[in-house]
Design a protein that fits this description.
By secondary structure, the protein is of the alpha+beta class. It is 33% helix and 29% strand. The protein has one domain: Roll (Diaminopimelate Epimerase, Chain A, domain 1).
């Protein structure tokens, strides 16, 4: 995920997911000049709501969630980013 980060557009996060024995494992990155959200914080919130765990720091983080909740998790992540970005406008 880190190798692709420089190519991110300003309003995007990079999400990479793999299917693992313990569920879907996700890695999320934001570019240096990308939208100003704390990736670790939004991952923690979205993963918890989807029945998993997540965290990290400002620019990168990871989460493990039940594989069947991946779609729900991505919707939650999108809503959380939009909420934070909207509050900073």
């Amino acid at each position: 995920a880190s190798l692709l980060t420089p190519s991110l557009s300003r309003d995007k996060l990079l999400v990479v997911a793999v299917d693992a024995a313990e569920g879907a494992k996700l890695s999320v990155r934001r570019g240096r000049d990308s939208i100003k959200v704390n990736v670790g914080e939004i991952l923690r919130r979205a993963a918890q709501l989807a029945g998993g765990v997540g965290g990290g720091h400002e620019n990168a983080g990871g989460a493990t969630i039940p594989a069947e909740k991946l779609g729900e998790f991505l919707r939650l992540l999108d809503k959380e980013v939009a909420r934070i970005a909207g509050s900073r406008s």
